[in-house]
Amino acid sequence: MKSLILALLFSCLPTIILLPVGAHAAAEPQSSKLILSLDDCIRIALKTAPELGESQADVEQATSKLDEAKSYRYPQLEIKSLVGPAPGARRNELFATDKTFELKELTWFASTDATLIQPLWTFGKISENMKAATHGIEVDKSRKEQRANEIVLKVKEYYYGLLLAREMKELIQEVQESLGKARTTAQKLLDQGSDSVDEMDVYKLDAFSGEVAKFLAEAKKGEHLALAAMRTRLGLPADSLLEISSERLTMDANPAPEYDTFLEKARAQRPEYKQVAEGLKARSALVEAAKANYYPDIFLGGMVSWAYASNRDRIDNPYITDQFKHIYGGVALGVRWKLDFGITGAKVANEQAQYNRLLSTKEFADANIPLQIRKFYLEMKEAENSVVATKQAYSNAKKWAVTAMANFDFGVGPAKEIFDALQAYARMRAEYFQSIYNYRIARANLDYASGAQ
Q: Which one of 59, 189, 214, 384 has the lowest number of neighbouring Cβ atoms within 10 Å?
């Protein structure tokens, strides 16, 4: 019986004990109970999940990179202004060769130089970086969707884990009640001097009843832990009154689709496929952008320079420019070409290596995602068959237990029959609920693997 109860309890606890229960600040006591369905839990979890906030920040960062890449299409204006001391100068001193500097002739000057560069043709430096940033946004959006799918899967595990814990608790309570009735009957028969029972039977029933009470307390602890984990996942205060609307752990009403259906959905909807596809486009664009550095930039340039000093005469001579007092400007078509010895080639090789790496990732995904789907599908079918088998088994064990209890009540059956029957019934009913849980989790994993959350 001890091994039976341990199997009952700990078969449902692995997915519960390992749930991350975070510490939430104490809040005002809740005046009403919050009753949520699975869909409600998923909706709240997606709304409050900090992981999605991080993913949204990644999307916004990628968007800013696209805005930066677009901005290189527009003119770039550089302005430099200076203010400082300057020596005085007169027009009649233009050709003087013996003029000495005198501190009293110092004056102040101000100058501004403005340069405007409008790119005309960059051989793909701008356009390819824009493409890369655009596809990068889609990659981050797909990652956010992937995280959302992971959250949905985790909520389903918590939800079904809570239902499983409650089913196990109810089963232990049922066993406890049956043992209590058998204990009462045994004591009654013993008091009547019946030969079908002795004091050892009573002691055994008391011992097993004590064990059941212990494991019932542990089952309740598992239930409370599962509820605490659900509150944490939903971002609710630790003292909130949370309840789920489902009362029993049951099978799906509709049969699951075939394997090929899940595989087709995965190829069409799974975020990882989109991540790889968009990532390859982004990396291809970055390779082309790196190659564009081999070529020059063609631009239209304009500049204006102005300077003024009060104690200096203006010199109007196209061959002489006074850096402290002047104004001039102009427009020109220019070419800017940066040549290096190996730097650009190394950058192209780096981007090409990243592209090749992503190709390998695509091959891995193409091979392993279908394998993952098949694994979950086979687990689902196995659990489905196990549900049918264990349901029939626990039904027969229940009849056995009822018959054994009735015979014992009439004093014609041994107490050992009760132990054996209850053990078989409890084990098979526990495996029945475990099979339903396994089916639900396998189906949830299939939905996740096919991107159908």
A: 214
Contacts of 77 by beta carbon, 8 Å cutoff, 6+ apart: 114, 115, 116
The alpha carbon torsion through 197, 200, 201, 202 (nearest 10 deg) reads: 100
Please give the domain boundaries of the chain with CATH numbers for all domains. 35-72+122-296+339-449 (1.20.1600.10), 75-92+102-120+298-336 (no CATH)
Tens-level pLDDT at each residue, the chain (453 residues): 444 444 444 444 444 334 444 433 333 344 578 899 999 999 999 999 998 999 999 999 999 999 999 999 999 999 999 999 988 877 777 766 667 767 777 889 999 999 999 999 999 999 999 999 999 999 999 999 999 999 999 999 999 999 999 998 998 888 888 888 888 877 877 777 777 677 887 787 788 788 788 888 888 888 888 899 899 999 888 888 888 888 889 998 888 889 999 999 998 899 999 999 999 999 999 999 999 999 999 999 999 999 999 888 888 888 888 889 999 999 999 999 988 888 999 999 999 999 999 999 999 999 999 999 999 999 999 999 999 999 899 888 888 888 888 887 776 777 777 778 888 888 898 899 999 999 999 999 999 999 876
Angle of helix 125-191 relative to helix 271-291, nearest 10 degrees, comes to 160
The full length of the chain comes to 453
pTM: 0.79
DSSP 130: H
CA 352 – CA 21 distance, rounded (Å) = 44
Token couple for 376: 């979950």
Distance CA 333, CA 302 (A): 9
Provide the sign of the torsion angle of the four alpha carbons 230, 235, 240, 241, taken in this order: negative
- What are the tokens at 446? 């299939």
Residues in contact with 451: Cβ distance below 8 Å, sequence separation at least 6, in sequence order: 145, 149, 265, 266, 268, 269, 270, 271, 273
Q: Which residues contact 270 (CB under 8 A, 6 or more apart)?
A: 369, 449, 450, 451
* Cβ burial 71-83 (10 Å sphere, 16+ → b, else e): eeeeeeeeeeeee
Q: What is the token pair recorded at 264?
A: 């087709």
| Cα 112–Cα 117–Cα 118 angle in degrees, nearest 5 | 145
Checking 257-261 for CB contacts under 8 A at 24+ apart, the result is 259/373, 259/374, 259/377
Residue 325 · residue 306 · CB < 8 Å = no
